[in-house]
């Protein structure tokens, strides 16, 4: 046996080495290509103008009319305080006798209208923003999950950094465009308010106007720093919160509830969950304290500035150099400029923080595929000769041990192949490579001589039917649980083709069981979403039959893969299903993985995997004659049954 290291050195020189450009250690599953969409980046990066443009573009596509409407409302809102300040000054000057009394009615009416607008505009504005956020949420979520669907393999979903990125992308994709659009409107609004009040201040005291503006600069810089800190904190807290969610799910799902109660592990897991929450809280608290300190200093600065302006205005008024209206306008303007600058700073820093997080969304949406997909894929030919594993080496990542080591195996067309071997020998891994859920690190898997990497993965998979060892159970109706095996069994409104579903269930030996359910094929197989009366929970074996039925929808495909399809079935059902399958799949290629050697003994070819390579292969009779691993395993299982049989018979007779 070659070691990985020696193989690495001699792989290209080996006569068997595939004449394929893919034979490269860089294709390790854990080293997925595509930095942007991958999970390699460990920080949210920097804000870029293109990120802001993309966020705005998303908002525009989600609802351009809302964007325009919200913008108009923002401008109207911004003008109101300045109008009110001037109307108040005029009113005060009229009252103190400095202007003609005829103005008073007009000013009073103006103030009443402005008051009404001040009361109504924020509500309208808030509604427009929320509606925009809702629409952006739908669009962003759809794009994000389309991007996730473009990932053809599994490795990204096993990468913790990618999962963290996905979770932040989901949050920020839904909220950033709306918030940034709203932020830009608020900034525009703030600019109008600042200019309006600054104009008023300049009219009274240019020096004071300059001082108020200068005081805003440190506030802006400090807030920007805080925003960067907040975005970095969110990235750090991501894995902690994901672990907390994992424990929370364990403590609330019915699957885990049995063991938790039986083993009394609830308090232990609750402790772990609380510890994660505390760790996340500590990060957030640290950030909150930084914010508290910074904002207190900024608050003191602006209060000091306002007090100085007031004292100065009062002194001038005492000397008769300012009117009462001037003092009121000055005080309102200082407060207005300070308030608007604070809002501006807040909005800019919030948008900055959001755009930092939005980078995660962009990284996923723009991400490169996890496995290389050819620009011009070769068509997947109808299988005529067979499938070949040629010198395949595979490990899940460079940090993991080799699972398949120089594996060579030919699956001839039309044959039923049985794959057996000890736990961890690499049987399911072989299946995953066959479906191109991963690529070999070295070597190649060839479909009628064509490398799987040169094909379109979706086209390849449309030729394959499969039941995985860890098959899915969907909280949907029994019919949908089957129909999901082939989307062509669903119409555009999501209704299943009941005849196809029924005949697939018949072939998988699931029909009688489903027909006996309270609503037959329409029975909801969930207690979580049912109203408490109609939901049904199936047994393990019953679920397995449904998974088989799902695969049976594709039973005329070029290749049918069954990874431990009958481990949960009773012996009679297992026998029936295998007999039916053999008849039905005669002439088609099938690969069956099983620990029950009785289930695969009739296969055309039996392959024994040991330590990630083919230890022996042949028919059942040949392998027994050879007296190797298979013969030993078969003998062990057969003896187990033989020893138990008399006792069981005795027990029954005696009882
Ligand atoms: N996603 C994964 N990431 C890392 N290692 C993995 C992954 N899946 C499987 N392995 C490892 O690969 C090895 C082979 O696993 P595989 O599931 O192929 O074995 P198997 O022969 O199907 O075993 P069993 O009979 O128990 O189903 C095991 O050591 C397992 O720990």
TrEMBL record:
PROSITE patterns tied to this protein: ABC_TM1F (PS50929), ABC_TRANSPORTER_1 (PS00211), ABC_TRANSPORTER_2 (PS50893)
Ranges annotated as spanning the membrane: 64-88, 100-121, 179-201, 207-226, 292-315
GO terms under cellular component: plasma membrane
Protein name in the entry: ATP-binding cassette, subfamily B
A GO MF term: ATP hydrolysis activity
InterPro entries registered for this protein in UniProt: AAA+_ATPase, ABC1_TM_dom, ABC1_TM_sf, ABC_transporter-like_ATP-bd, ABC_transporter-like_CS, P-loop_NTPase, Type_1_exporter
Domain ABC transporter: residue ranges: 387-636
Annotated region described as Disordered, given as residue ranges: 1-44
Places the protein is found: Cell membrane
UniProt key word Magnesium: no
Membrane topology type: Multi-pass membrane protein
Alphabetical list of Pfam families matching this protein: ABC_tran
Keywords, in A-Z order: ATP-binding, Membrane, Nucleotide-binding, Transmembrane, Transmembrane helix
Stretches assigned to the ABC transmembrane type-1 domain: 68-353
PANTHER family: ATP-BINDING CASSETTE SUB-FAMILY B, HAEMOLYSIN SECRETION ATP-BINDING PROTEIN
Ranges annotated as biased composition (Low complexity): 1-14
Main location: membrane
